[in-house]
Write a structure and sequence with these properties.
A hairpin with a 2-residue loop joins β1 and β2. The protein has one domain. It is mostly helical. α2 runs antiparallel to α8 and α3 packs across α10. The chain has eleven helices and two strands; from the N terminus they run ααααααββααααα. Helices cover 68% and strands 2% of the residues. Strands 1-2 form a two-stranded antiparallel ribbon. 42% of the residues are buried.
Amino acid sequence: MSANSVSPWEWGLFGVIVVAMLLVDLLAHRKTQHESRKRAYAWSAAWIGVGLAFAGFVAVRHGGTAAQEYLGAYLIEKSLSLDNLFVFLVIFSSLNVPEDSQRRVLFWGILGALGFRALFIFLGLQALERWHWVVYVFAALLLVAAVRVARSPPNKPSEGKNKLVGFLEKHLPVTREFDGKRFFVREDGHWRATPLLLALITIELSDVAFAIDSVPAAMSVSRNMFVVYTSNILAILGLRALYIALAKTVHALRYLHWGLAAVLAFAAAKMLLSHWVEVPPLLSVAIIVVLIGASVAWSLRYKARHPQAPASQRSEPRPPAPGGRREARA
């Protein structure tokens, strides 16, 4: 499958699907103040179903190999998005963002990610086509990311507030008060950003860092723009529902970081050895499923054997203090 074999109407169909998913996600949660975890799980399952159904479309249009590449890239992005949840928890906790406002920030953050990912994927694929040595640069980035993820277990408490949040608070005109769901307020004749805008900027900048890990990982499975971009976007579109579903429990998956690190290391090895060893897409899918599944099963087994184990301090965001925002430790 080549980029030229993708018809404009296929890109158009994908665009319609993305817009429809965004509208449904926005309208479905508009009047929900405190969404139940059961409802969030149902929405997560629905978005995953859309992503998997699109694999069927790829198979019909471009064959089984392209569909397998799509599934591999989709699973990588979906798996790594779990690591993103930990960062979101720290950001929202640092700023004490109320639960209903968190969903608004995540929605706009996902919109920004649509453009960021397109730019990263386009530039990355162009670089791989022109300069072979870029493969080794991407592999090195993935290995560094694997080490970083392995050294950051979810049950390890964070000290202090998110560093990026602290930096932005010092360099931007920010008010200490929330004003509903507004991003700006006017104080003493001057416009100031609310903590909600600060959270959105931090989320967007964090996604740039996430893309540096996840985009090369997806490119280890496929070098086709359509496959990499569609799988990436459909994986992150359901991130808001996934966050709501797992925000209170993801820290309990104490061994998940080992599975994520192993996926990144596998992607790095696949890139490094691509000139000599070709790993079939279906085998890549199987390896990713086994690595993540084993880490989750290992975590659930530990939880079942140690039901009284202390919860992570990197858990759910705390409610805001009456009348404003208090300084919170992540």
